[in-house]
TrEMBL record:
It holds the Pfam family 23S_rRNA_IVP. InterPro entries: 23S_rRNA-intervening_sequence, 23S_rRNA_IVS_sf. This is Four helix bundle protein. Signal peptide: none annotated. CDD domains: 23S_rRNA_IVP_like.
Length: 124
């Protein structure tokens, strides 16, 4: 059974900070991109802590792990979208180099949490 509060998880805390950073860095994106890459990047970033929180609120480790996998996928999606934004000239090198390591660290933390949670499930 999952009994952890998402607010106690370091990975959730870091993901919340990443969301704020992403919003700050995307405010200067071209207005014509507001419903395209800007929205995509923001939704990917928001999805990470949201899925961690939803998973932590579930009743079983198996359910928690399922939502952690979704959060991990959102991390990979964000990684790709940040590169696209940099290649389009919407993110400068400093912004990109500020966001990417945070996203990568969070991705590693999520994968570590998945591994740990899997170890708590008894083998049948």
């Amino acid at each position: 059974m999952s009994t952890v509060s998402h607010k106690d998880l370091d990975v959730w805390k870091k993901a919340i900070v990443l969301v704020s950073d992403v919003y700050r860095c995307t405010t200067a994106f071209p207005k014509e991109e507001v419903y395209s890459i800007t929205s995509q990047i923001r939704r990917s970033a928001v999805s990470i802590p949201s899925n961690i929180a939803e998973g932590a609120a579930r009743q079983t480790n198996k359910e928690f792990i399922q939502f952690l996998f979704i959060a991990s996928g959102s991390c990979a999606e964000l990684d790709t979208q940040l590169l696209i934004a940099k290649n389009l000239g919407y993110l400068n090198e400093d912004m990109y180099n500020g966001l990417l390591p945070k996203a990568e660290e969070i991705g590693k933390m999520i994968n570590g949490l998945i591994k740990y949670r899997k170890s708590l499930i008894p083998s049948l």
